[in-house]
Design goal:
Helices cover 47% and strands 5% of the residues. The chain has 112 residues and is mainly alpha-helical. The protein folds into 2 domains: 33 residues; 62 residues, no CATH class. The chain has a two-stranded antiparallel sheet with strand order 1-2. A hairpin with a 6-residue loop joins β1 and β2. The longest helix has 15 residues.
Length: 112
């Protein structure tokens, strides 16, 4: 194989077959491939986007909006109850940075 062919391929995460690097679904086994790179616009299977979650956490974390967005209603209510202490705002800011720093695959595994 020439070097340009190697750079344009990758292995399927499920069956191991060599597929095109841009392929979203393996033609052999039909399994959706994880997105590579740091694209923030990719949503998890549940429709949650890590960019949206990160921005909600950074700017509205004190109110727990990011927790409601991620489907953690109980934690969101706790953030609302204690927003006046400013502790949820600090924790939300840190969580937002963590969401934005995580990979799409890690975010999807945890919140998808």
């Amino acid at each position: 194989m020439n070097p340009s062919t190697l750079a344009a391929t990758r292995s399927c995460q499920n069956c191991g077959r060599v597929i095109d690097a841009r392929a979203e679904i393996c033609p052999q086994c039909g399994v959706r491939q994880p997105v590579r790179g740091g694209s923030f616009g990719v949503a998890t299977p549940s429709g949650r986007n890590r960019l949206a979650a990160g921005l909600f956490a950074i700017f509205l974390g004190g109110l727990g909006i990011h927790k409601f967005y991620l489907g953690k209603t109980g934690q969101g209510i706790l953030y609302l109850l204690f927003f006046w202490t400013l502790i949820p705002a600090l924790v939300g800011f840190v969580e937002g940075i963590l969401y934005l720093a995580s990979s799409d695959a890690d975010f999807a595994a945890k919140y998808g």
